[in-house]
Amino acid sequence: MTIKDTLDKLEAGTYQNSHPMVLGGIPFTARDALVKAPLLTKLNMFYLGDRGEGKTQLAHDINSYFGKNSCYASGRPDFEPSEVFRQLNAQALGRVLRGEANPEEASQIEQLTENINRSLFYIDELNRCPPITQNYFFDLMDGKIVFQGRILPLGNNGYSVGFASANSGNAYNGTFEMDAALLDRMHMAVDITHPDFFTTAGDVFDIF
């Protein structure tokens, strides 16, 4: 896929925000800054906003660009990345239970899923996870995972990027403060409810 094909693809999607911005003297739209630029440059993004501001729609759009090459998770208190990256090898487990497995086979009961090869990792409503659970996402945002004592890179052809969203403030019960160390791994955090990122009246009309 050429750069032009990629840029054309990033023009698709339901999320629309043509709010004008000027960065370094060059005009952009808010959508350019919030979506296209981070994906093209592999910047981890953290979107903050109140309910109904379009965060989830934005998440679905970004995931749709990658199709099967994305990994999407919805935050909750008991979430662990092991649910996404690890699974049991049923065949090896059966041999162990029947007493037919050698030590090497017994060590291979657990295996990685295809998600390790995805390019995009998106966690929606990240602050529904308590800080101790948020710790599990450090490696995800660093583009790696530790498996059986080995550090393995995430991504496809060297491309791996992490996106997350959260509700700003305490909009409803069940949210937690964000872990400061995890926030350090986000290259850019954006409050999409800030006036600089408001959608225009034309955007709202087109979407409806």
Brief characterization of the structure:
The protein is α/β, with parallel strands linked by helices and 208 residues long. Helix content is 33%, strand content 23%.
Question: What descriptive keywords fit this protein?
Answer:
208 residues, alpha/beta, Rossmann fold, five-stranded parallel β-sheet, 10 helices, elongated
Question: Could you characterize the architecture of this molecule?
Answer:
The chain has 208 residues and is α/β, with parallel strands linked by helices. It is built from ten helices and eleven strands. The protein has helices at 3-10, 30-41, 55-66, 82-85, 90-97, 103-106, 131-134, 138-142, 180-184, 201-207, and strands at residues 20-23, 26-29, 45-49, 70-74, 86-88, 110-112, 120-124, 144-147, 150-153, 161-167, 188-191. It has a five-stranded parallel beta sheet. Strands 1-2 form a two-stranded antiparallel ribbon. The mean pLDDT is 81.
What portion of residues belong to β-strands?
15-25%
According to CATH, what is the topology? Rossmann fold
Number of helices: 10
The overall average pLDDT, rounded, is 81
- Helix/sheet category: alpha/beta
Shape: elongated
Ordered list of secondary-structure elements with their pairings:
Elements: H1 3-10, E1 20-23, E2 26-29, H2 30-41, E3 45-49, H3 55-66, E4 70-74, H4 82-85, E5 86-88, H5 90-97, H6 103-106, E6 110-112, E7 120-124, H7 131-134, H8 138-142, E8 144-147, E9 150-153, E10 161-167, H9 180-184, E11 188-191, H10 201-207
